[in-house]
Amino acid sequence: MKVWEKAPAKINLTLDVLRKREDGYHEVEMIMTMVDLADRLSFEDIEENKILLESNSGIVPNDERNLVYKAAYLLKTKYHIKRGVHIVLEKNIPVAAGLAGGSSDAAAALRGLNRLWNLNLTEEELMKIGEEIGSDVPFCVVGGTALATGRGEKIKKLPPVPPGWAILAKLPISVSTKDVYETLNLEEIKERPKTKEMIQAIERQDFLQISQLLANVLEEVTFKLHPKVKQLKKLLQQFGADGVLMSGSGPTVFALTNKESKMKRIYNGLRGFCKEVYAVRLLR
Ligand code: ATP
Q1: Among the CATH numbers 3.40.50.2300, 1.20.140.150, 3.30.230.10, 3.40.50.1860, which is that of 2-158?
Q2: 49 Cα: distance to centroid of ligand 1 (angstroms)
Q3: Catalytic annotation, residues
Q4: CA 94 / ligand 1 centre spacing (Å)
Q5: Is ligand 1 within 6 A of the CB of residue 136?
Q6: Contact between residue 258 and residue 209 where contact means Cβ atoms under 8 Å apart
Q7: Whole-model pTM?
Q8: Which regions in the chain score pLDDT beneath 70?
Q9: 3-state secondary structure of 132
Q10: Which CATH class is domain 165-281?
Q11: Distance between CA 103 and CA 248 in Å, rounded?
């Protein structure tokens, strides 16, 4: 038997860091949604009792360091699965980009193997297992639009965002999420996202308001470490986007618009400046 799963990238509409906890994690409050830029995974039974992972990415490892492998291993040991699986990962989401590609792959592996192995686990159960892999995995299990709190693992579903496009641009820079959180000085945060207002704007399906409320407290930190990311954000604003924000800890910056003509203008304008540009629909 063979099953397929899609693992979409996430973007942050808001990202706030409230405080540092005793366990070393940061308490966050963020609104996330998915875009139609996705990795694809297939899962197939094999004779030999092992996890065999293959991918087209020259960057991510194919062994136990891969979050897909981790997800498969966790399910296999927890539920005493004595069957082997061949997983093929088609990587389309840029790696270490602030788009939670790895977390989304892990979530897709949980969903896919739940089906392949007939485990009948509920969404809540898969989210709980996902927590062991990474803070963003529970959100990626559910998808859609949601408010994430705690260290990112507590999920409250929100209505879908109104239809629109995101133009994503990524400079050839690697940003370590750990470095960004370590550099962040909570006392230096000038402006915080208006999370409640953003939720209301989503409930009202007010695209312009959503675009205007985009905010991420990690932007200033990454901008300081990599000034070119700030320049890229300015450029996107000049092209006439309704709103522009860095996703996660970066370096990907995205612009929102609900007009196809604007989407095309921004996409074409950017391609001269930045090699990696994607114009994709917001997933609903
Ligand atoms: P986040 O927004 O959650 O911080 P990210 O988009 O910045 O995530 P990812 O692409 O999810 O970063 O992963 C970054 C790191 O995780 C890389 O060092 C990569 O080697 C490792 N990794 C493990 N498995 C995967 C995977 N399936 N896809 C991508 N990266 C993976």
Answers
A1: 3.30.230.10
A2: 27
A3: 10, 136
A4: 9
A5: yes
A6: no
A7: 0.97
A8: none
A9: coil
A10: alpha beta
A11: 13
